[in-house]
Amino acid sequence: MDEQPERASPHGGASDGEGAPEISVRVWRLEGGQAIEAPDRLASEEPLEIRLRAGELHSRVAVTMRTPGADRELALGFLFAEGVIDRIEAVVGSRLLHDDWSAPGEPSNVLEVEIAGNELPDLARLERHFFATSACGVCGRAGIENLRLRGFRPAGAGPRVTARLLYSLPERLRAAQELFAATGGLHAAALFTAAGELVAVREDVGRHNALDKLIGWAFEDGRLPLSDTIVLVSGRSSFELVQKSIAAGVPILCSVSAPSSLAVELAMEIGQTLVGFLRDGRLNIYAGRERVTTGSGEATSPV
User: Fold this and answer.
1) Which end of the chain is more exposed for a tag (fewer CB within 10 A), N or C?
2) Which pairing describes strands 161-162 and 292-293: parallel, antiparallel, or unpaired?
3) Which of 32-41, 119-128, 211-220 has the lowest mean pLDDT?
4) Which residues of 117-134 are buried (b: 16+ CB within 10 A; e: fewer)?
């Protein structure tokens, strides 16, 4: 098996795939009634096929559109969050394979993860998951039931944080988004301590991929569960993002936009603090308001 990539930096993510996270293009900008040709940079978007191997058995697990870079973290985070693997010791290694749709010499977009043993886990549940959509209420409630079957329990006490601290997180995230600054076209997921210190950030064209990369980094680094932390995601918080963060033990999940109804339902059932519209010095708390104080030490309460 190929040598595993070096451990990624917390704040950037190693480009352990072969593709580039951004590309250069020429555009025509219209300014003041004049057309100006100028260079521009775009976030790359390419398919990644995740395969699983155990001994002589192998299977395709998923295909996702992602920004190349931190592909191993993405695969590990996805496999952990979906309950396929539950400990890093079970991972023997990973390697990039040449896919069937790329021309010779083009970057590989297939990552195979090898696990210990000679049998693959039951992947039928994942097949059902990928035919579902975030708009499918029945599928979402089936996902909640699946979390129960996987043994998820209500979140622990977790940290208590001030609203003022939460207000400061989006700016800290934006300052660390190197690829977003260059392209303006990426989502991000960031891990903070209860004191607001930025621990790690991952970027991707997909919100789910960014969180998978972050969880994969924490999983490989032996940091799970993330029981005393805050996670901030760009965009909205969907049911899937709440599910993934709960799998990683995150007690406080924040987003800069709105949550979905199923995201709120799941957060309330598990006891996770779910914050939305965290921007411009304001926020909404949809679940778990006991962990957020006004600054005087008192938990937030209705006015």
Assistant:
1) C
2) parallel
3) 119-128
4) eeebbebeebeebeeeeb
248 close to 81: Cβ distance less than 8 angstroms: yes
Question: What are the E-state strand segments in 128-248?
Answer: 161-162, 187-193, 198-204, 229-233
Measured CA to CA, the distance from residue 261 to residue 26 in angstroms comes to 41
The gap from C-alpha 286 to its chain's centroid, in whole angstroms, comes to 20
CA max distance for the chain = 66
Domain segments of the chain as ranges:
22-146, 161-293
Between 251 and 100, the more confident residue is: 251
Kindly state the tokens that stand for 221: 């680094």
Task: State whether residue 227 is helix, strand or coil.
Answer: coil
Catalytic sites, residue numbers: 136
Residue 287 sits at φ, ψ, to 5 deg, of -160, 150
In this prediction, residue 296 carries a pLDDT of: 54
Tens-place pLDDT, residues 91-102: 999 998 876 655
Q: What are phi and psi of 36, to 5 degrees?
A: -125, 125
User: Domain 161-293 falls in which CATH fold?
Assistant: Cytidine Deaminase; domain 2 (3.40.140)
User: 3-state DSSP call for residue 215?
Assistant: helix
Comparing 197 with 140, the larger pLDDT belongs to 197
Helix axes 124-131, 137-149, angle to 10 degrees: 150
CB atoms under 10 Å from CB of 116, counted, come to 12
